[in-house]
Amino acid sequence: KNVGKISLEQIDSLSGKSFPLCMRQLHQSLRENHHLRHGGRMQYGLFLKGIGLSLEQALQFWRSEFTRGKVDADKFDKAYAYNIRHMFGKEGKRTDYTPYSCMKVILSNPPSQGDHHGCPFRHSDSELLKQKLQFYKVSPSGISQIMDLVKGMHYQLACQKYFELTHNVEDANFSLNHPNQYFVESQKILGG
Ligand code: SF4
Questions:
Q1: Whole-model pTM?
Q2: How far is CA 163 from CA 43, 44, 65, 167, 192, in A?
Q3: Distance 78 CA to ligand 1 centre (A)
């Protein structure tokens, strides 16, 4: 398995290069707000586990970010650490939870005000999505191709188009169904 393959210091740069938009957005919100609500912690936490963070790394990652905000270390250990150990199957029913697929992210638990989870291609308002894509340096013609796919409700194809445009490949040669698959395919191209 890939546990321990990445270091915490790499996450910022990986998030810009190899994370799909849903995870890039969660990472950015976490860094900005030093907090994520439960839906975001689950979606992002399981993704990070999937790319190889160990339980110890995950605890360190979430603790150091949350304690930069309103949560002190004591509160973190009481209120949040359980949740993270739980994700790794160390508490409760000891289920080893798997990262969410695109279908799960797209179809269940839609984000409400103040949430940052979900699939931006499905859940972001289209003006906001365009702004995000501009901010991430997608060309105007690329943005209009993506928005056409979004309009046709082809969210995973829109995400795949974003992958092709941001990795400079004509054809991604895979059919996207999982955020962790996006990461693996990106790393293959970038030689990570
Ligand atoms: Fe994330 Fe999948 Fe949506 Fe892409 S299509 S942003 S990987 S949920």
A1: 0.95
A2: 20, 19, 28, 6, 16
A3: 32
